């Protein structure tokens, strides 16, 4: 895998096709950037390794946090980028990259408002607060899925006349001796490599959660976890960055989840925990404070006997969970078990009835239980970038025309699982993509001025 991901040094690139901006990755980050570029009248091409864009976005819940949007105001929610940034800082205990916290909190609302103008119909979830958020600011499409989000973004991109090339896995970056990107090499079905020249390159591709060696090297605490993310998270951005001499940052940050349903292999919404559900281990013990967050819960669950826990909840939480399509599918697959009393629940969990944590009395009987483990969803560390999404070297200087955002770059979760605020992944993708588009436009304008 690693040998295919390479930087090719050259002073001249012969390519049949040239575009002002090439974007590697057709998830929320890449498509948001492409739409913003189209609004600015700048042509680009999105290069997507899958036949149809999906990636980490499609596997997510599709909820995007933003403060001060038109939708929030319409729903009577008074929020601001400053309040949002404060929640990000507090969750990360002050360890998140401050320049990105400020930039992303400020950019998220105009990015979503711009997407709304392209037909994406967001509303704000108000039934409960996600961990770490002081106000309701999770924006979602009516379908409540990440697959619906990426499909809507793709539809908007095509309607805007944007070229989205599927089955186009970028394996090469062509760069001159000054690290200016000249273009990319694209592996097409059948193995042929095609070249595309560009003036600006945006890496909106992936993290490294699907690259076992990089996980062992850079994120050892999750080396034994189920990887529930997209296979496209192959670490290519980091591998290219190392070859270019770019700086890396916050490699210990990631989004884990302590509620990966087994053996069905599905994500169970953490809303159940936020509304009173509890997690029990095989001894019937409640082993952590669930409302702290689902990312750090992954580590807590994996530390339990067998790396397994039970999500236990009552009828009210079950009704809430059924609002989410992923849960309904898991329930159809037999994930939910129901007990009419403590003894029945104890048999499900595999412990003595007397050993069950007293907190279960807050919602039952009946008791509902789902067997879960801890999983790694996506990494939050990557290429170091400045507030304009320019890739930086270790000395703080920037590479001439290389941008990165979303999973390819460091996020705003600091350097540990507990720093992940709900929605930080899509925040980095959407706000980062929107900022990167503006930076690309500025770079092209400056290039024209230089003659």
Automatic annotation (TrEMBL):
Residues 21-416 form the FAD-dependent oxidoreductase 2 FAD-binding domain. Pfam families: FAD_binding_2. Its cofactor is FAD. SUPFAM superfamilies: FAD/NAD(P)-binding domain (SSF51905), Succinate dehydrogenase/fumarate reductase flavoprotein, catalytic domain (SSF56425). InterPro entries: FAD-dep_OxRdtase_2_FAD-bd (IPR003953), FAD-oxidoreductase_2 (IPR050315), FAD/NAD-bd_sf (IPR036188), Succ_DH/fumarate_Rdtase_cat_sf (IPR027477). Keywords: FAD, Flavoprotein, Oxidoreductase. It comes from the Bacteria. Signal peptide: none annotated. GO terms for molecular function: oxidoreductase activity. This is FAD-dependent oxidoreductase.
């Amino acid at each position: 895998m690693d040998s295919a991901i390479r930087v090719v040094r050259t002073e001249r690139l012969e390519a049949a096709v040239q575009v002002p901006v090439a974007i590697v990755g057709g998830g929320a980050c890449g498509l948001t950037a492409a739409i913003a570029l189209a609004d600015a009248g700048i042509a680009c091409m999105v290069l997507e390794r899958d036949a149809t864009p999906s990636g980490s976005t499609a596997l997510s819940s599709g909820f995007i946090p933003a403060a001060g949007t038109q939708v929030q105001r319409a729903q009577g929610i008074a929020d601001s980028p400053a309040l949002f940034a404060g929640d990000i800082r507090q969750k990360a205990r002050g360890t998140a990259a401050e320049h990105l916290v400020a930039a992303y909190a400020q950019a998220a609302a105009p990015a979503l408002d711009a997407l709304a103008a392209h037909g994406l119909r967001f509303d704000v979830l108000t039934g409960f607060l996600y961990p770490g958020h002081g106000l309701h600011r999770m924006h979602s499409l009516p379908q409540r899925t990440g697959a619906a989000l990426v499909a809507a973004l793709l539809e908007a991109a095509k309607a805007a006349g944007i070229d989205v090339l599927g089955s186009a896995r970028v394996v090469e970056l062509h760069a001159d001796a000054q690290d200016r990107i000249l273009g990319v090499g694209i592996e097409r079905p059948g193995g042929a490599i095609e070249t595309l020249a560009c003036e600006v390159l945006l890496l909106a591709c992936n993290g490294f959660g699907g690259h076992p060696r990089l996980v062992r090297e850079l994120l050892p605490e999750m080396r034994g976890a189920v990887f529930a993310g997209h296979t496209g998270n192959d670490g290519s951005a980091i591998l290219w960055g190392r070859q270019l001499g770019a700086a890396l940052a916050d490699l210990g940050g990631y989004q884990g989840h302590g509620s990966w349903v087994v053996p069905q292999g599905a994500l169970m919404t953490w809303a159940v925990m936020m509304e009173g559900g509890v997690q029990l281990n095989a001894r019937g013990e409640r082993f952590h404070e669930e409302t702290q967050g689902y990312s750090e819960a992954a580590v807590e669950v994996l530390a339990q006997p067998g790396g397994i826990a039970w999500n236990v909840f009552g009828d009210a939480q079950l009704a809430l969970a059924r609002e989410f399509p992923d849960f309904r599918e898991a329930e159809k697959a037999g994930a939910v078990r129901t007990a009419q009393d403590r003894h029945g629940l104890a048999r499900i969990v595999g412990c003595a009835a007397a050993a069950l944590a007293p907190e279960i009395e807050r919602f039952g009987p009946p008791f509902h239980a789902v067997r879960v483990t801890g999983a790694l969803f996506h990494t939050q560390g990557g290429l170091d970038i400045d507030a304009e999404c320019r890739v930086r070297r270790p000395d703080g200087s920037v590479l001439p025309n290389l941008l990165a955002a979303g999973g390819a770059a460091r996020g705003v979760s600091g350097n540990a699982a507990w720093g992940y605020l709900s929605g930080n992944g899509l925040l980095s993708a959407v706000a980062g993509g929107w900022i990167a588009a503006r930076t690309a436009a500025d770079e092209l304008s400056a290039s024209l001025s230089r003659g």
